[in-house]
Amino acid sequence: MRKILVLVEHSGGVVDDSAYELAAAARNLGEAGGDVSVGGVVLGNDVTDLAAGLGAWFENVYVFDSPRLQVPDGVAGAELLAGLIEQEQPFATLIPHTNTGMDLAPALAVRAGSPLFADCIALETTPDGLSGVRTRYGGKVHARISATGDGGFMATMRPGSFDTGEAPGSDGALHTMEVPGDLAPQRRFVETVAPEPGAVDISQAEVLVAVGRGIDEEEHLEIIRSLADVMGADIACTRPVVDKGWLSKSYQIGTSGVSVKPKVYIAIGISGSYQHIGGIKGAPYIAAINKDPAAPIFGVADVGIVGDLFDIVPLLEQQIREVKGVG
Ligand SMILES: Cc1cc2nc3c(=O)[nH]c(=O)nc-3n(C[C@H](O)[C@H](O)[C@H](O)COP(=O)(O)OP(=O)(O)OC[C@H]3O[C@@H](n4cnc5c(N)ncnc54)[C@H](O)[C@@H]3O)c2cc1C
Question: In whole angstroms, what is the distance from residue 72 CA to residue 79 CA?
Fold first, then answer.
């Protein structure tokens, strides 16, 4: 049975979605017969209850619970995880490519003597090792990297790049791990910086209405909000809309923004640059409204409407209201 470890990120007592995404990605790394045992690793203070709630996702949950882990600390985390890796000898250890993960993974890779696949958007086993995909040149190029060997691989994975799927419903065993008394925190807590007001999480949205520079004026965003409202969708945007200060950065899809994986994505007044499209994962149903029939967005759209968004968006909203029977 091939073992995979996943570092579970959490904050304020809530497990981050990246943990479920990585758990699902880990299940694809089994041996030929699909045999795989996925272990979740939880580091923190007063986190045993949180760890106990993860049994449906992981066959084993390893919890390091100590006041010494109150503040995320890559050095301390790497030390503890290195010990667990030595004990469990996993085929691979998956870490979210977040601030915490980026802090911990390089130190851990050095300690464990593992090759590190950084910021992967895909990962698969090969006959003689592991292969991953990461983006280069702002998302223009997808580079495949690989390493050979029987195991001991490590990868940081970009949040939003993998579907969470369903919990496999395992009845995971909880293992309380020892945190050495001499583990000295290397970090000093200074302050918690709250997300900017109005920040949203579009990475998990199922339906996205995205707007681009074609909207022309900030006040015109109202027609996009109105359409999104009636559709029960979230709104998102391209970088120029953020650069103009019309929406905050948390709404930006793309290689320098957020990766999203909606089921339906509607692009309004968006040209379809690779930096924008590079942030859309999976295979959503894409509808595009653009007045330029040669806009690249039509090359990836399932349905395209060539026309002026100021004519089409209100019409679309009206049609949806009629179909839904709402006033
Ligand atoms: C390093 C780097 C990273 C970047 N990262 C990102 C990123 O993460 N996300 C991102 O989005 N961009 C990113 N960009 C910017 C990217 O290159 C494009 O400039 C950007 O995506 C274009 O946004 P847009 O489609 O809104 O604007 P435009 O390319 O200007 O397109 C506007 C579209 O609106 C259409 N339009 C205009 N008026 C109307 C109307 N009345 N009705 C219908 N259609 C209309 C036009 O035909 C046009 O196709 C990055 C760039 C660089 C260099």
Answer: 13
Number of separate domains in the chain: 2
Among protein residues, the one with the nearest Cα to ligand 1's atom 50 is: 275
Question: Which of the listed residues 176, 199, 218 is the one where a domain comes to its end?
Answer: 176
Residues 153 and 73 in one domain: yes
Expressed in angstroms and rounded, the spacing between residue 227 Cα and the centre of ligand 1 is 20
SS3 61: strand
- Which residue shows structure tokens 């074609």? 214
**Whole-number Å distance between alpha carbons of 137 and 278:** 11
Q: Which atom of ligand 1 is nearest to the CA of 279?
A: 8
The answer, as to whether pTM is greater than 0.90, is no
Containing structural domain, residue 262:
207-324
Which percentage of the chain shows pLDDT scores above 70?
A: 97
Cα-to-centroid distance, 264 and ligand 1 (Å): 19
My answer on whether 159 and 219 are in the same domain is: no
Q: What is the CATH number of the domain that holds 250?
A: 3.40.50.1220
From residue 83, give the alpha-carbon distance in Å to each of 79, 111, 204. Answer: 7, 9, 33
Can you tell me whether residue 121 is helix, strand or coil?
A: coil
- 204-257 per-position pLDDT tens digit: 899 999 999 999 999 999 999 999 999 999 999 999 999 999 999 999 999 888
Q: Is 277 in the same domain as 213?
A: yes
pLDDT average, residue stretch 97-106: 93
- 254 CA from centroid of ligand 1 (Å): 11
pLDDT over threshold 90, residue 47: yes
Name the E strands within the chain: 2-8, 10-11, 14-15, 36-44, 60-65, 92-96, 116-120, 122-126, 129-136, 141-148, 153-157, 173-176, 207-211, 234-237, 264-268, 285-290, 303-306
Is residue 292 within 6 Å of ligand 1 at its C-beta?
Answer: yes
pLDDT band at 96 (very low <50, low <70, confident <90, very high): very high
CATH code for position 155: 3.40.50.620
